[in-house]
């Protein structure tokens, strides 16, 4: 059972890593002026919710399976995702708003955030991988 | 025109053939007169002139430029004249010459353009012609002679808002600047000495007067000469003949300055100038202030203040920049005149210029084409031309290297640029040194002068670079620079005299510590001018007008750390598309741009040799294309540095097909009108239709212009206006959930083919819905339909809305709680309620469609949400609260006048604007109405002349290895005539390494406007109270940083540098502004509208909104009045915004930008009430009065001409309210007295104490 949890987490984590990379690539495209803000933001906003859901599922899964340490590790990031999603002003077009992304260094902070998430997910990936192997051996 | 004028002064003989001064003349002259150098033709003429030789050198430099200009700007005919002028000035007055040139064409338009002003320099070129000395003088003289025309033109300038801009820019630049100043001054109220214009004809007399009576700027003159050439020229019509000059000489000799002046004077005209200066110096004794002003081109400024303010005032002005300031009380008249004229001339030239260019260039812009970049700039047109190394002889050896410039190698620059049109620059340069021996001497002489003055701060001194050994002229320059620096010293002196000091002054004056808590009259009596960057004269002259382009710090800190220490915002304020009367338009096959950063070639690039130039933004070395080697203005080859692109910091290119993604679109206008019951009740349709009928022929456009109409209530109505129909067909679409276009082809029709149908429709519209009972408003669906209609072409959608949208997509709920209007806590709902309008705006923007919103509502309409449709599509927003055509006649009148402006003003379609800056700086936040498409590219579906922008900057890399930074704005647009054009503005600023220098260069007005923009963002993204705290902290931080680092004085009071002394006052004004105030009942829509205005108004208009101007108008006199057209416009002094200034016996006018209040005190003189208001006594004045009757009395005439003049200075007509002391309406008036305490806000003094307390914490 434990192995199943971690196999799932591992797959989910892979998806999140890809997503983080995708965010970084798209944002840097915008930075380099390869795409315009409108299309960049509509691309990214599409994936904000899946990312949030994907990460929340893993977090909840860890809570259910009573892996406290991993749960607590994931909690801040999951909370941040949800907070960010909820706090989007009513007039904005999503977490990434094309009219504001070039203002006040938002692009940079989005980029930084995507980088941090990528690092975090990589860390989680190896943790899940280790835990999965351990679980499989124990089985 | 110019010719005649010119002739007078210089003695006829002097002039040379002038034709274009260009080229030929200068060439000949230069070589011919070895000593003087081409420019100096004057020199040859008069030895005295030689003194200026130093200057002469300069002149040469200038000359070259002038030559270009002259040709360009001046029409063929005019050119010759101009050229002459140029010659005259050339040495000394290069700038003036420019003016001169312009004069030739007397353009009617108001806005004086800086650019042209620069152009004027061209005249210098002419230099070669002996007669030319008129240059400065000539210009003046021209003006005088032509006086009547020029004046008129002046008037125009003033009247039009555009003018202002021009003025501002100018300051730094020589004459042009002066002109600009004038214009500004006029605008601002400055007393336009110009009034004197009329006297111009009498120019000579003036000159004399100057000598005799004026106290003028003594010392500095010398320094000025070189620069001042401009000033002097302007002010004094050089025309004054020799006689005056002699007197001057004497004076000069006395002062020791003589040499300088003389040198400059080389020509008779020049003499005049110098003389004046000298005289002024002599006079100066009397008025320090004057001197100051003189020192720089400031003279113009001086004019402004003139009459009233006495010398004292002028002193204040001295601000380093000089450009702005100096209104010497004495001189008012002279300067003005000169200024104005130039402006006119300039304008014309500009136009002509364009033509010339075209001819020569031959290339024409072809509309078709295709392709290429989306963004304008992206394309690469450039190509390098052929390069080759050919060096022709010489053209200016290092024409524009920055280093040289900074170093003080100005001469080189000048020479290169200046090189007279005709002659090759190289020769000039070379010859100049040799020939000019005299000149050098003078220059030396001059130096002493300069030295005499207090030395500038080290930082500044840097600017004065050492002389170039190679180039004799250089020395003169240095002298000049010194002078310039000296000026400040003068300023300081003067500053002691008066409280008028302008912020602008750089250096000493701007750093003079002011104890805010003890300085009772902090507000100057004359308008505040933009500080002039502390650059050398050449660069100053070339620099962009502050009306178009301003930076909050005119001295850029070297590192971000230094900027952080100063605690001041760094950013740019732009007004890129403002109405310019003169603008060099360049048609060329290849638009020369840097290959790596795509910067357009500009006056601040450096030419490494004949064939290569170094980009001033990225420092890449580029080839000079073959075509660029040929100068169409002078028709000479091998002088790339004299091309108009390199002589003007504001130019417009006709773009080739490389800059088009599709053929240029036609002008397309769509009107979307609310016809619900509410709208019909308000009655705006009548006014709109009437205005449209009147202005139908004036809509900007060509034969392809298309127009369409839609109306909506709970359904959407389209109008088929297809040619051939007997009457307009109305098509109703009631499916608002899925709007479609009933007949897509016939809804937008050609204006000319269907004019009769359109007129029928406009006549019928107001009555069509008179009995409607439909109260709903389906704005969203109507906008969707409009988008579908416009998307194939792009264009402008004008939406008239009178209530909250209540049906279909984009419907809104009322979010305002009336009980919270005066809450001091949280103000909610400043942001949009839905993203519908934002999405729509982005869609529109993508299809090159801008949406302009006219909101005419009596109730809450959620402007915060609706405004998004304009904000992101680069539209504009007009808001008429409580609009009703009969119950609120003042709003109705305002709508009518605004519509007239709106319908007839210039418009640019499918525009993009890119802002570039020197490597090391980066832009991180933009303010205004547009969509930021990529990091530095603003997408503007439409651009209009009333739109302003702001940009925040940060310093990413140390700028230690560069002494100058440049900013370039390129606006690519399709004109209403279907031409693709690029308007380029380039601003150059010095880099400083000390905190004191940073403070010395603060442009308080620009800083306040930028802060206001930032505060709006903060209010929306965070909260209003955060924004207010941030504003207060901005004052506290900057003053405490100043106190702890720069100021050595340990005072108990609150110390601020003079450049920042108005900072707390303005911030307090912001806190009491509708957008940010709390505790006072403010409707949400009013507040949001104020925020929208802060975001998109250009600086000049925004400042009036933030800090209104108060004048006392019951005692208007002609003292210091200016003449605009045929009217005499009195120039009352500014009063501080406090009830203590309101006496019961007086009548006061408050200019709040979009509203005028006239407050009548209870004890106001019955004569005034009767003569001006047309009522027998105070009691009989009605409560609502919005017009001044046209009475045939002197005081009525003065009051009306003053108000008209103020009105003419802005694009949108303000409403006038006459407020009796007792009427309930007076609270509106008193709200604007920001120095007084209100129940919810500090008085100014309390605010200072509060700030002081915060600092001490």
TrEMBL record, chain A:
<dbReference type="GO" id="GO:0006888">
    <property type="term" value="P:endoplasmic reticulum to Golgi vesicle-mediated transport"/>
</dbReference>
<protein>
    <submittedName>
        <fullName>Cornichon family member 4</fullName>
    </submittedName>
</protein>
<keyword id="KW-0472">Membrane</keyword>
<dbReference type="GO" id="GO:0005783">
    <property type="term" value="C:endoplasmic reticulum"/>
</dbReference>
<keyword id="KW-0812">Transmembrane</keyword>
<dbReference type="GO" id="GO:0031730">
    <property type="term" value="F:CCR5 chemokine receptor binding"/>
</dbReference>
<feature type="transmembrane region" description="Helical">
    <location>
        <begin position="118"/>
        <end position="137"/>
    </location>
</feature>
<keyword id="KW-1133">Transmembrane helix</keyword>
<feature type="transmembrane region" description="Helical">
    <location>
        <begin position="5"/>
        <end position="25"/>
    </location>
</feature>
<comment type="similarity">
    <text>Belongs to the cornichon family.</text>
</comment>
<dbReference type="InterPro" id="IPR003377">
    <property type="entry name" value="Cornichon"/>
</dbReference>
<dbReference type="Pfam" id="PF03311">
    <property type="entry name" value="Cornichon"/>
</dbReference>
<dbReference type="GO" id="GO:0005793">
    <property type="term" value="C:endoplasmic reticulum-Golgi intermediate compartment"/>
</dbReference>
<feature type="transmembrane region" description="Helical">
    <location>
        <begin position="52"/>
        <end position="75"/>
    </location>
</feature>
<dbReference type="GO" id="GO:0016020">
    <property type="term" value="C:membrane"/>
</dbReference>
UniProtKB/TrEMBL annotation, chain B:
<feature type="compositionally biased region" description="Polar residues">
    <location>
        <begin position="39"/>
        <end position="51"/>
    </location>
</feature>
<dbReference type="GO" id="GO:0005789">
    <property type="term" value="C:endoplasmic reticulum membrane"/>
</dbReference>
<dbReference type="GO" id="GO:0021747">
    <property type="term" value="P:cochlear nucleus development"/>
</dbReference>
<dbReference type="Pfam" id="PF00626">
    <property type="entry name" value="Gelsolin"/>
</dbReference>
<dbReference type="GO" id="GO:0000149">
    <property type="term" value="F:SNARE binding"/>
</dbReference>
<dbReference type="Pfam" id="PF04815">
    <property type="entry name" value="Sec23_helical"/>
</dbReference>
<dbReference type="InterPro" id="IPR007123">
    <property type="entry name" value="Gelsolin-like_dom"/>
</dbReference>
<keyword id="KW-0862">Zinc</keyword>
<keyword id="KW-0653">Protein transport</keyword>
<dbReference type="InterPro" id="IPR006895">
    <property type="entry name" value="Znf_Sec23_Sec24"/>
</dbReference>
<feature type="compositionally biased region" description="Acidic residues">
    <location>
        <begin position="372"/>
        <end position="385"/>
    </location>
</feature>
<dbReference type="GO" id="GO:0003151">
    <property type="term" value="P:outflow tract morphogenesis"/>
</dbReference>
<dbReference type="InterPro" id="IPR036180">
    <property type="entry name" value="Gelsolin-like_dom_sf"/>
</dbReference>
<feature type="domain" description="Sec23/Sec24 trunk">
    <location>
        <begin position="664"/>
        <end position="903"/>
    </location>
</feature>
<dbReference type="GO" id="GO:0060982">
    <property type="term" value="P:coronary artery morphogenesis"/>
</dbReference>
<dbReference type="GO" id="GO:1901301">
    <property type="term" value="P:regulation of cargo loading into COPII-coated vesicle"/>
</dbReference>
<dbReference type="GO" id="GO:0060088">
    <property type="term" value="P:auditory receptor cell stereocilium organization"/>
</dbReference>
<dbReference type="GO" id="GO:0008270">
    <property type="term" value="F:zinc ion binding"/>
</dbReference>
<keyword id="KW-0256">Endoplasmic reticulum</keyword>
<dbReference type="InterPro" id="IPR036174">
    <property type="entry name" value="Znf_Sec23_Sec24_sf"/>
</dbReference>
<dbReference type="GO" id="GO:0090178">
    <property type="term" value="P:regulation of establishment of planar polarity involved in neural tube closure"/>
</dbReference>
<dbReference type="InterPro" id="IPR050550">
    <property type="entry name" value="SEC23_SEC24_subfamily"/>
</dbReference>
